[in-house]
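1st attempt posting a full record on here, be nice pls
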Amino acid sequence: MAEKKTFEELLQELGDTVRKLDNGQTPLDEAMELFEKGVKLTKECNKILDTAEKKVSLLLKTSEGEITETKMEE
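the predicted structure (as tokens):
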């Protein structure tokens, strides 16, 4: 089984893919494959970000010393 890539690795790969598409020298067939790869990488990055967003919370101490969990606002 392939090792799961980190967000940073996926983002780097997406950037490389975009640069290849942006150079204007890529044949159409290869450009279509790169575009598909870019869409898949974008979806993977978004999934990771969505998961992270759900986990993010701030722990705040009240004046009584109690710890409360507050979701971050958009």
